[in-house]
Structure formats: structure tokens, C-alpha cells
Amino acid sequence: MRAAMSMCWVLLAARSRWGAPRSLARAQAIYSWPSGIRPAAALCGRCGRGGAAPDQATALAVNGTSLYLTGSYRGANAAFGPTTLPDAGNAADVFVAKLTDAGSSASFTWALAGGGAGTELGSKLAVLGNAVYVGGTFSSATVSFGSTTLVSAGNLDVFLAKLTDNGSTAGFSWVEPLPYNSANKEELAALVASSAGVYIAGYYNFYYAPIGVGNVIYSNFLTKVVDNGSSASYGWRQTVPDMVSDLAVNGANLYVAGIFRNSAAFGSTILTGPPQGPAANGACEAYVAKLVDAGTTSSYAWAKQTVNANFSTPNINSLAVRGADVYATGYSGSSTSVLGSAALPAGSFVAKLADAGSSASAAWVLQAGGNGFTPSALATSGTAVYVAGTMGPQTNFGNIVLTNAPANLYEPFLAAITDVALPARSSALLVDLSLYPNPAHATATVRVPAGNIPATLTLLDALGRPVRTQAAAPGTDCPLGLAGLAPGVYALRVQAGEALAVRQLVVE
User: Fold this and answer.
1) What are phi and psi of 84, to 5 degrees?
2) Domain locations along the chain
3) CA distances from 441 to 408, 438, 492, 503 (A)
4) 424-507 has which CATH code?
5) Tens of pLDDT, residues 433-472
């Protein structure tokens, strides 16, 4: 599982211009800027990676205090701390490097390379214990990773490799090509690992038809890879519609997101896409589906899709999972879009799906957006959900407005969402609870539903800290004092026994 701190490292590696933390509480979720980000986390720029030629880091994975990077480097003298990698020439070779976070500082521990005469790129990473899995593409006729040499099937090929981290050193344990022997372009879209297996998704037989002849032609794959220690084998393969954007895994539960056109079958579940034709102009729908790995076979448990009333192109860029909670971030091109039963805003969003085993439902949706705003990554840590990406001149997170100067630059952003989970017995409390006036000044009134159990009122600030706590009798109108509170958005939690409800309160 991707760790939340990877967000901080990736973004601070780009440009470190963080201001004061700002936050917004909303219904069952809270947006906030994370605090306590260490300046030492500026990753590559401060740890001295790469050489004089252009390099790029494309993926990062975290395990405790160990951070792993992959990407490509060119030319000679590419140094990662004490390790200098072999000359990659005028093309590009793959690198995998380990950083050790010492708290107020970080340093490279080891780095390995792989490549050939052409261009190679490491694009995906996953870590499980001391096993580091890296996936990417190679264009060389032959490519070497340690003592293993792969032979290209043509054009662009996918590889998957396992490295064993021995602490201060590492080595390649095995390297495998994609087993579909495609002579056309192959792409790797996602890579995840859990105790149940290693999973990859992407495309093969991928090429663009000439203009006026047809659309993009590709075949998809979603495959399990069985790690046998010093070797690997390919397990089951599942069909997936159109394009896969991301995977997330929790034990044997695998979640897949992407887009589809026409209709899409996920086992017995059939999703319906928008009508196609000249007016559609590439219209599609986005989906999130759950796949259960049974060892040698797998099956879909459920699938959810976006539904648009007009021709638009929604997408889901990234997934994260914590227990039975599945989080998705993406873009909806229409204000009439829904994901399951939840309405999506016209713009970018973060949504939570509650996995009930054989079905799922949308728990909440938060909106964020602006010109040039693109959410591209999610991660979870404890009760926090982190979303990261790039923003243009102005981005809105609820009532948080971020501006970017100069306006023609794109900046990284990092936001934190505190998810307030609701127990199953909260539905009646949610219906009958009311809070007024809202916005409020010195006092707000909470109308507590009738019942046999007294309620506890807890007012939380945007960082999730209790600022007011008091008891309330059932079936009463309870005054809630707000004197001394700073203006802003708060979350009121009302709990009666196992029932819990949350309301947003604006203090002016």
C-alpha cells in the first residue's frame, strides 16, 4: 500500500513553496493543509541524485523510513549518494534507488541500473517487506538487469522486475517481460503488491490508426504475477474495458479504475457507456470495480460507473484503499454526473466508496478545482486521506482559495482530508438531526432527535481537534456556545450510543 508520506516527498521534490496550513470542514470529510512538513524532505534536489544529462523520477514507494525511487537517467556520472551508475550513453536507462529518512536528513543508500542501447524507463513501483517491484518499458533489442537479459518483441515492451533490499545493498532477483509477445507498443498503467500477489495492468497491441481510418486500437491486460522468490510466473488474467488508470489492493481485494466507451462487462455486472457516433466526440464514462483474487482464479464482485447526461469525458486518475473504504480522485466534465448514487461536481473531485463485500455505495464526494487543476495521486495514513497533483492560477478547496504567481506556471499541491466514518446505525440520527442558524455567530442550536440515549455534542475544528464538548438530552433543542471561536468552518459530531451524525457549521 502506498504510504501517505510519499505525497509529501514527491511534491516537495518539485517546488517547495508551502504557505501556512489552511483547512475546511465539510460534512463527513475535512479538507486541510498538512502541517509539520520538514524542509529536509526536498528529496532529489537536496540529496544529490542524477548526472549532468536530463534525468527523471517517475514513481516512489515507501516502507517505514525507506523510500524507493525509479525513473530514467542519461549519460555518464549519474550519482545517487556514493553510487555512480554506468554510462547510459545518449539514450536513457532505468534506475532504482533507495533513500533512508533519518528524520532531519536523508541519504541515498544504494542504486541499481538496467538498460540497453535504446531508451528504457522505470515508471511504476511497489514495495512489500524487502521486495521492491519495478515496472516500466524498454525499446532496446536486448536489455540487461543485473545478470538477466530480455529480448524485445518489437517497438516498445513492458518489463517487471523484483529487487531484494538487503539493507545497505540490493540486487535483482528476477526480471520478466510481458508474456503477450506483442510486436506493437506496450504500456504499463499500474503496479501494486500485497501478501496475495503482485498485480499489473496496462495495454499491448497499442497503436494509433492513421487519421481518418479509425480510433486508437489496443488490447488490455490485468494480470497476477506470482513471486516464487528467485523467479516469477504469470497467473490469471482478467478482461478490463478500454483503459485502466490505477489499481489499489488490500489483501486479496483488488480495485481497478479507468474509463470505458459503449458497454463494459465486469463479470455479471454490465455498465452502459454514452451513445457513440459523430456527436459523441470521444465521450466515455469512468468506473471503479472490485476484483477478488481466489489464488489461481479471480472474479469481479462489483462495479460502479459515472453517468453523464451529456457527452463528456470523466476520468478517475488514482485510487487508494483503507480497510473497506475505497477513495478515488478524478474529473467530471458535467454538473449532471453521478458516481453510483452520489452527485459529482463539474470539475475535479475526491470520492469515497464503502465496500460492502458484494456491493458498494458512495459515502461522500468533495469538490476541488480551478483552471489547470489536476488531481493525480491519493494515499491514506491513519484517518487522513492525502490528494496531490498540480494547480494553475487559482484552485478552490471548498472555501480555501489558493493562488499561484506567476499565473502561467503550474504548481504542485498537497491537501489532506480527515474522513469521519459513520456507523451503520446513524441513518435515523442523520435524518432527524438539525443545526441552526447556519452560519452562526455567538450561539447555534442543535435539535437532538428523540430517543432513550443522551447525546454527546463535539465541535471539531478543521484539523479535527475538539473545541467544544457537551451533553444533550434526547428530544431537546440544545444551545451550543460559540464565543471565542475563530471564524471558519467546523464539524459538529453528535453521538448517541452507537449512532453518529456529522453536520457542517460555519462560524462568522
Assistant:
1) -110, 125
2) 43-189, 424-507
3) 40, 9, 15, 16
4) 2.60.40.3080
5) 789 998 999 999 999 888 778 889 999 876 667 899 999 9
